[in-house]
Amino acid sequence: MARDFGGGASDDALAPVIPLFGRKGGRQADDDVVETAHDADASNFTNSRHPARSSRDAGPSDTLRSSFPAGVAPLRALSAFTEPDPSSDGASADGTDDESGADAQSGNDGEEVRAAAVAVLVRKLSAKQLSVSEARDVLRTQGLTGSDAGDVLDDFEERGYLNDLALAEMLVTSGAERRGQGRVAIGRTLAQRGIPRHIADEALGVLEDDDAERALEFARSKAPSMARLDDDAALRRLVGQLSRRGYGGSVAMTAARTALRENKRGFTSRPTSVRFTPSDDDLA
């Protein structure tokens, strides 16, 4: 019979029995299960009420773990994801160099250089007609030289993108008709553009040997602007302009003198624009 600390004794009041063997572990396991379930319920409750917080609080390991395929061990999947492919650096599994991979990489680099150089050349040709020599310079600045550049130039010539003769003829026509240049100046322009000598001679052959006439036409167009200069100053300036356009000394001098003389004669013989009104005394 147990003693009642309240002041009396009761036959029904027994001291609690505490099991010493066999039940402690089971009770502890049950408590752990209950606690785990309670934590899970609390977590689910929190996530359901705060979905943004639950996704924000997830760490990198949780994100990687959620991406693992079913049935794949996390560590094995992670190592496969992070380790570099041995074949990517040109080495085989036994550590030897993969020469075929290096050759393929070198070939790819060469194709990239070629494609980039051709793209630059096409852009320049779309803005301005180039000679073969100028096109070769463009490719060289882009790192394409030798036979590779020669193949590109041959292909462009076959397609008509490059034509030295057509370019030379255009330069001859423009120099003679639009700029009033002589054969010497036009020939100098062709040489500066890289036109071969035999092609330049062929293009210049279409011009008649009339530098004197073209020089006179140019001098006549410039003489009126020099009317206010004295004769010597006007002659020096006009001869200088003719010389810069490729006309020889005697041709330039003759054309300048002729044009200035014609302009002076025409200026003095022009009727004045001032009109005089007769006065009453004149009429009387």
The biggest beta sheet is recorded as:
none
- Please bin the fraction of helical residues: 55-70%
Proportion of strand residues: under 5%
Low-confidence stretches: 1-10, 23-93, 268-284
Radius of gyration: 50 Å
Provide a count of the helices. Answer: 14
Quick one: overall form?
Answer: elongated
- According to DSSP, the number of beta strands is 0
Summing up helix and strand content along with how strands pair, one would put the structural category as: mainly alpha
Subcellular location: Cytoplasm
Protein name: Regulatory protein RecX
Keywords: Cytoplasm
Function: Modulates RecA activity.
3D structure, described in words:
By secondary structure, this protein is an all-alpha fold. Among the domains are: 109-162; 163-209, Orthogonal Bundle (Arc Repressor Mutant, subunit A), CATH 1.10.10; 210-269. It is built from 14 helices and no strands. The protein has helices at 24-49, 51-57, 60-67, 74-82, 99-127, 132-141, 146-159, 164-178, 183-192, 197-204, 211-222, 231-244, 249-268, 280-283. It is elongated and about 75 Å long.
